[in-house]
Design brief:
- By secondary structure, the chain is an alpha+beta fold.
- The protein has 3 helices and 11 strands; from the N terminus they run E-H-E-E-H-E-E-E-H-E-E-E-E-E.
- The chain has one domain: tt1808, chain A (Alpha-Beta Complex).
- 19% of the residues lie in helices and 31% in strands.
């Protein structure tokens, strides 16, 4: 296992028009869906107040997402469940991670989305979305204090594990960023307790 700080040369801020604008809040985003202005199945996410189109998914992306969910389902203990591509509501965003480990039972979320305090682990599969996942999404998850964030980097065939969220707003990041490659195992922790491990090769297509 090697440990390094991943490059974050770009803030990946969305382009803003020359006139002042008011980004959407999460409640306003929900109101647009309830009113039928947006459809809940539209390929968009709310990221830091901006409606952002999701990246197109190649078969390798879909396969890796399925593998990650299956691998985590095998080790997640009672009191947690694994979900895929469903919304997580933070203070400023509503991303839809490829895989997420959530506290409780599925019936606990019949009238609301999971929030940061409900989340033990988020996984994003990255190919064309690598910069977005490394910079923009990482900042969003760190600001929300998501304890552990994995990027399954299909380009470099490695897993980037981010832990210890720190900072807030645009300065939010993860203090620990480790890279795991084929032949290595990633320890999975929930509530700071080890629940099992996953082989890197079990996550890659």
């Amino acid at each position: 296992m090697s440990v390094e700080t991943l490059s974050q040369s770009s803030s990946l801020q969305p382009a803003r028009p020359p006139e002042p604008v008011l980004p959407l809040t999460v409640p306003q985003y929900h109101e647009m869906i309830d009113a039928g202005i947006l459809d809940s199945g539209d390929p968009i996410e709310l990221l830091e107040g901006w409606l952002v189109t999701k990246m197109t998914k190649l078969p390798s992306h879909v396969l890796s997402t399925r593998k990650a969910r299956r691998a985590l389902e095998r080790i997640v203990p009672d009191g947690w469940f694994t979900d895929s591509q469903e919304p997580i509501s933070t203070a400023t965003s509503e991303p839809e991670p490829d895989v997420v480990v959530i506290r409780g039972m599925i019936d606990d979320y019949g009238d609301r989305h999971a929030e940061p305090g409900d989340v033990g682990l988020i996984v994003e599969v990255a190919d064309s979305s690598l910069e977005r996942d490394r910079v923009w999404k990482q900042r969003i998850y760190a600001a929300a204090k998501i304890p552990c964030y994995w990027i399954i980097n299909l380009i470099d065939r490695q897993i980037e594990v981010c832990t210890s969220p720190t900072g807030s707003g645009e300065s939010a990041s993860y203090a620990s960023q480790q890279i795991f490659r084929p032949g290595e195992q990633i320890v999975v922790e929930l509530d700071e307790s080890e629940v099992g491990s996953v082989a890197v090769v079990a996550l890659l297509p």
